[in-house]
């Protein structure tokens, strides 16, 4: 039997996702109409013989997370549990801390997935690859090709082209190493814990040394904080244990709010195959739909509105006459009054956009002329100035009629009285 672990991080993570991550933990932010994590869970639940999915992170369990877990268990008819780390233990420390839970029931293998990626999740393909290629107890990293410059923002893998064995692994190198990058999706078996255990023991010894000669720190925590990438993969490379399965299917990181719009586009596109029922169609008496659009059944949309491509409309959203929405995510309870226009933006929960207002951002899509380009999830500022990016309205923001909001981030609960351009409105 198989298991899956999803690394969901915690509240200190997701800073590039503010102000949206103030309202909802980043892994629950809706992408293509459903919480980001639901795409992972659905993919894991589809793998034959999958018995349990564990979410590991350092969020305090809250109502929203609990509700999500209950719904996911019911929908996918599989055990989905949350295990809370007492502190950020890193990508390897969390799974090591909860190893007893992971190996209980004797799974022959388990997947580990980063929560902040969107992907077609070729998990069954990874399983077959492992059986055909690797040594019986080898581990598999999902890899994809990036362009030379962007590859350095990821874990880089040098492979043996014949066997696909990982010969060399460098996490976010400062000079070019390889254009094959780590997608943050792995197939392990319980042997991985021996390797993490070795690092843990070494850390403990180092800590002991520190205790003797320097000021005592929380040694247990420091020894348990282990990174899969730097501490484990780098050491395993070239040992005949680690293999890379390269996928041609879609994959992207979800770090910034802009990358959530891009990830929505990828998933909406996939819905043609996986969930055609989630895609809105042009029906008589309904709004005009252009391209891939998700509309929650509780949304109230005027038939003269035009939506798409790449639009997701959340629960209870109201959209008035003549409204135009493109490349945007409209979160639950928002109201778009008559004839307003929303482009490349995320409109926060319960926000209102006045009549004839224009809310617009600059897309941060990958270069369409480069087949290996990835989205740049850059920082908010470059050379001390706000980088033009998508416009984000936090929750409960009110935009007056007939104004333009361009490339701006508006923090929650703001009642604007004029237009803004390239600003963060605190
Ligand atoms: N439970 C838990 N999860 C964590 C922790 N730290 C990070 N995570 C989760 O682990 C994932 C990776 O997070 P980062 O540490 O921010 O790494 P990264 O910059 O995204 O890079 C990783 O992913 C890339 C692909 O998206 C890889 O290319 C790269 O090599 C690396 O694995 C995210 O889903 C994050 O929530 C932790 O202490 N505990």
Automatic annotation (TrEMBL):
It holds the Pfam family GMPPB_C. Belongs to the transferase hexapeptide repeat family. It comes from Echeneis naucrates (Live sharksucker). CDD domains: M1P_guanylylT_A_like_N. Pathway: Nucleotide-sugar biosynthesis; GDP-alpha-D-mannose biosynthesis; GDP-alpha-D-mannose from alpha-D-mannose 1-phosphate (GTP route): step 1/1. GO terms for molecular function: GTP binding; nucleotidyltransferase activity. This is Uncharacterized protein. It comes from the Eukaryota. Regulatory subunit of the GMPPA-GMPPB mannose-1-phosphate guanylyltransferase complex; reduces the catalytic activity of GMPPB when part of the complex. Mediates allosteric feedback inhibition of GMPPB catalytic activity upon binding GDP-alpha-D-mannose. Together with GMPPB regulates GDP-alpha-D-mannose levels. One of two paralogs (gmppaa and gmppab) that may have redundant functions. The keyword Protease does not apply. Keywords: GTP-binding, Nucleotide-binding, Nucleotidyltransferase, Transferase. The keyword Transport does not apply. PANTHER family: SUGAR-1-PHOSPHATE GUANYL TRANSFERASE (PTHR22572). Residues 3-205 form the Nucleotidyl transferase domain. Residues 289-425 form the Mannose-1-phosphate guanyltransferase C-terminal domain.
């Amino acid at each position: 039997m198989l298991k899956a672990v999803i690394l969901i991080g915690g509240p200190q993570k997701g800073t590039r996702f503010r102000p949206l991550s103030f309202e909802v933990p980043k892994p629950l932010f809706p992408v293509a109409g459903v919480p980001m994590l639901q795409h992972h869970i659905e993919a894991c639940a589809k793998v034959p013989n999958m018995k349990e999915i564990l979410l590991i992170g350092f969020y305090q369990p809250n109502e929203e997370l609990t509700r999500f877990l209950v719904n996911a268990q019911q929908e996918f008819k599989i055990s989905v549990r949350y295990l809370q780390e007492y502190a950020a233990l890193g990508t390897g420390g969390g799974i090591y801390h909860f190893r007893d839970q992971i190996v209980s029931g004797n799974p022959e293998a388990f997947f580990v997935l980063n929560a902040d990626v969107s992907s077609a999740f070729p998990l069954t393909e990874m399983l077959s690859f492992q059986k055909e290629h690797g040594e019986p107890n080898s581990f598999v990293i999902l890899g994809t090709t990036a362009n030379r410059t962007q590859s350095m923002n990821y874990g880089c893998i040098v492979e043996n082209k014949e066997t696909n064995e990982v010969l060399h692994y460098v996490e976010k190198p400062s000079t070019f190493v390889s254009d094959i990058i780590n997608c943050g999706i792995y197939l392990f078996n319980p042997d991985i814990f021996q390797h993490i255990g070795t690092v843990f023991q070494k850390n403990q010894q180092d800590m002991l040394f520190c205790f003797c000669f320097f000021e005592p720190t929380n040694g247990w925590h420091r020894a348990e904080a282990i990174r899969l990438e730097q501490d484990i993969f780098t050491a395993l490379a070239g040992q005949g244990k680690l293999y890379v399965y390269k996928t041609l299917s879609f994959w992207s990181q979800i770090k910034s709010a802009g990358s959530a719009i891009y990830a929505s586009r990828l998933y909406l596109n996939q819905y043609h195959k996986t969930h055609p029922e989630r895609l809105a169609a042009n029906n008589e008496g309904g709004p005009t739909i252009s391209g891939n659009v998700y509309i929650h059944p509780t949304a109230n949309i005027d038939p003269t509105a035009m939506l798409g491509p790449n639009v997701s409309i959340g629960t209870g959203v109201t959209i008035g006459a003549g409204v135009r929405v493109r490349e945007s995510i409209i979160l639950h309870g928002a109201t778009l009054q008559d004839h307003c226009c929303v482009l490349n933006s995320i409109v926060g929960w319960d926000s209102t956009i006045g009549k004839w207002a224009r809310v617009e951002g600059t897309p941060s899509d990958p270069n369409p002329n480069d087949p290996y380009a990835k989205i740049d999830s850059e920082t908010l500022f470059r050379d001390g100035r706000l980088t033009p990016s998508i416009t984000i309205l936090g929750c409960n923001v009110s935009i007056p009629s007939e104004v333009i909001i361009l490339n701006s981030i508006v923090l929650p609960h703001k009642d604007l009285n004029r237009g803004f351009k390239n600003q963060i409105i605190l």
